[in-house]
Design goal:
By secondary structure, this protein is an alpha+beta fold. The protein is built from eleven helices and ten strands.
Length: about 375
């Protein structure tokens, strides 16, 4: 077996085979441990609320033997006497591949934690979905950045200090170029942490309103009442005046009723009490006030204010409809007329006589001479 004595890079072939066998044995051991963990802990993880059980299963399932083959081979080749340059590059490759596997494990664990966080909080906190998405992005960005710097630090000839300084200067330039995008990103983080609204909330922004469907890294999407999708950039959304209608504890309602000027004074005194009784008869309404508020051009205005004990819009409309119908019924029974736009012209005796004769008249009712000279003369 003379071929076993062949020398490769100063080491006999027999040692190379032993090193390869050691690397294969190490990979086999990793595969065996991963399989045992996955098979043993998967049923436990399905029943246990602990994070560690799910984490072990997820790490075992995402272990990639092809990626770990390079680190395993590097460990097996430690028993060989390799040239310094080869040993350095082999070590750098092994570290880089191992960091790639660490990135896969870390990403899987972040995904697992985000899933558990979202499921645990979704029913009680609708903001969990948006929060989980932003935290997932930030956690992965930090993880990949750190692992990339560690990988570069192990590459021969790469000065990590100078690289970090260069990246800092470049980062400033990129930040200036992408300030709008970064503004939306930080606005998304602010929405996630401060929670001015969450998924499912009905909000109004200026003259537009809708239900929050998605809170993204750059935009927030609403579903309008007409079925259309409204898209706002996060930075513009936070700089606007937002009304979160879903968080109303009570709905304040103000409406006005106009009655005719001919309404009797005694009836006018009875109207506030009638309105109060009508509002208080509604189970979801809390009466506040009813007053003879003002004299308008065509009517006498009564102002009514009450509060709905629920923010539900449909129940508010049902209540307002019941109040309106009761007002119509009781006003008609009491002989109170609703006002509508009318205009009355009152003519004095002289003015009416002049008008009947077709003559123009002064403001005091005296007839003025007509242009054709017919009629009384001024004198």
């Amino acid at each position: 077996m003379e071929w076993l004595q062949l020398s490769i890079l100063g080491n006999p072939l027999q040692r190379w085979l032993i090193a390869a066998g050691a690397a294969a044995a190490l990979l086999l051991l990793v595969r065996l441990v991963s399989w045992v963990i996955a098979q043993h802990f998967r049923p436990i993880a399905a029943r246990s609320p602990l994070f560690i059980d799910d984490a072990l299963v997820r790490v075992a399932e995402t272990t990639n033997l092809l990626i770990l083959a390079v680190p395993a081979l590097n460990l097996g080749l430690q028993m060989l006497a390799l040239p310094p340059l080869v040993a350095i590059w082999l070590y750098a490759a092994a570290v880089s591949f191992f960091l790639v596997q660490v990135a896969i494990w870390g990403s899987a664990l972040i995904t697992l934690w985000i899933e558990r966080y979202r499921v645990r909080n979704l029913e009680t906190n609708a903001a969990a979905v948006g929060t989980a998405r932003v935290l997932s992005f930030i956690a992965r960005l930090v993880l990949f950045s750190v692992l990339l710097l560690l990988a570069l630090d192990n590459i021969p000839g790469v000065e990590i200090t100078a690289l970090v300084a260069s990246l800092g200067i470049g980062g400033i330039a990129v930040a200036l170029a992408l300030q709008n995008i970064l503004g939306d990103l930080f606005a998304s983080l602010s929405i996630t942490l401060d929670k001015p609204f969450v998924l499912g909330d009905f909000i109004a922004v200026d003259d537009m309103s809708g239900t929050v469907e998605s809170i993204g890294l750059k935009t927030t999407r609403l579903r309008g009442l007409g079925g259309e999708q409204l898209i706002f950039s996060n930075a513009d959304l936070l700089s606007s005046r937002i009304r979160n209608l879903k968080r109303m504890e009570e709905r304040r309602v103000l409406f006005t009723i106009g009655v005719a000027y001919e309404t009797d004074a005694a009836q006018l005194r009875e109207i506030p009490a009638m309105l109060r009784a009508i509002v208080e008869a509604q189970p979801d309404a809390r009466f506040d006030r009813a007053h003879f508020a003002r004299f308008s051009d065509f009517d006498l205005d009564f102002e009514v204010v009450y509060f709905m004990r629920t923010p539900d819009y449909m129940r508010y409309m049902d209540t307002q409809q019941a109040i309106n119908l009761a007002i119509v019924e009781q006003f008609r029974a009491a002989g109170i007329d609703f006002a509508y736009p009318t205009q009355q012209i009152h003519l004095s005796g002289s003015l009416s006589t002049a008008a009947a004769n077709g003559q123009p008249a002064d403001a005091d009712g005296r007839a003025r001479p007509r242009p054709d000279g017919i009629g009384p003369k001024a004198g």
